[in-house]
Specification:
The protein is an alpha+beta fold. The protein has two domains: about 1-215, Macroglobulin (MG2) domain (Immunoglobulin-like), CATH 2.60.40.1930; about 215-255, no CATH class. The chain is built from five helices and twelve strands. It has helices at about 1-20, 120-125, 140-155, 220-230, 230-255, and strands at about 25-30, 35, 45-55, 65-70, 75-85, 90-100, 105-110, 160-165, 170, 175-180, 190-200, 200-215. The strands form three sheets. Strands 2-12-11-4-7-8 form a six-stranded mixed β-sheet. It has a four-stranded antiparallel β-sheet with strand order 1-3-10-9, with no helix packed on it. A two-stranded antiparallel ribbon has the order 5-6. A hairpin with a 3-residue loop joins strand 9 (about 170) and strand 10 (about 175-180). Helix 4 (about 220-230) packs across helix 5. The mean pLDDT is about 85.
């Protein structure tokens, strides 16, 4: 829904601008439309590339900038804060986020703050500091800010939030490309590769491509089994753990 809303705003802006002058268009693509996760999956490098089609095929003297965003499925999660009480670490305050992206990576041809103003960046969620995490209203503003910073920092350290200003290369003002990493910790689901064309502080065009991240092989079979037969999967996991424990104990006695 968020992707559709951002693209609607971009297309609306282009439509309003197009009433006075024709606007450039984007023709984007990605190096992989499907990413398979196996037991040996250590991450991937996705190439986001495409072309800018200017009216009449003429590149203006001040060519536009490009921002690309790779976004994973949204998640509902709870962040908990630990405190030491009498030498024991216990869960203390917590905050719930109703719609946090499981993965977010952004690359741009220049620093985003030099391309658009704060309002535009917030509307399109351009940059880690502009992500709309949809926190619960039960926490006060100061506490929410602290938990939001903690969530962002944690996901940066896990390679799930990435920001690469100045890494989009534009050739002859027409062809662009950027490489973004896909962490080995990513969840399965539909990812979106969004491309924004920016000039004079305005988003002139936007386009999106979808990428399917899914498990394959044995991991996929176990995932389907756990999803369709959760009770049986749990009993099987317990039985396997007990069996391996007994086997390890037997081997230890024989050595």
């Amino acid at each position: 829904m968020r992707v559709a809303a951002r693209l609607f705003l971009a297309l609306l802006a282009v439509g309003l601008l197009g009433a006075t002058a024709p606007q450039p268009k984007l023709v984007p693509d990605v190096s992989q439309r499907e990413v398979e996760i196996r037991y040996s999956f250590t991450g991937a490098q996705l190439l986001l590339f495409g072309a800018i089609l200017y009216p009449g095929g003429k590149v203006p003297a001040d060519p536009a900038d490009i921002i690309v965003v790779l976004r994973g499925p949204s998640q509902q999660l709870v962040m908990r804060e630990k405190r030491q009480v009498a030498g024991i670490w216990l869960n203390a305050n917590s905050a719930e986020f109703r719609s946090a992206p499981s993965f977010y990576a952004v690359a741009s041809s220049r620093p985003i703050r030099d391309m658009v103003d704060e309002r535009t960046a917030a509307i399109y969620e351009l940059g880690l500091d502009k992500l709309q995490l949809s926190p619960s209203s039960l926490n006060d503003g100061v506490e929410i800010d602290r938990f939001s910073r903690g969530l962002t920092d944690l996901r940066i350290r896990n390679g799930l939030f990435v920001e690469r200003p100045g890494s989009v290369r534009i050739t002859d003002g027409v062809l662009y490309q950027a490489t973004l990493p896909l962490s080995a910790r990513v969840v399965v689901g539909t990812y979106t590769a969004e491309t924004f064309l920016v000039r004079d502080g305005r988003v002139l065009a936007a386009a999106v491509r979808e990428i399917e991240v899914r498990k394959s092989g044995f991991e996929r079979l176990m995932g389907v089994f756990a999803d369709r037969q959760p009770v049986l999967y749990g009993l099987t996991a317990v039985a396997m753990a007990l069996s391996l424990g007994l086997l390890a104990g037997y081997l230890a006695q024989r050595i």
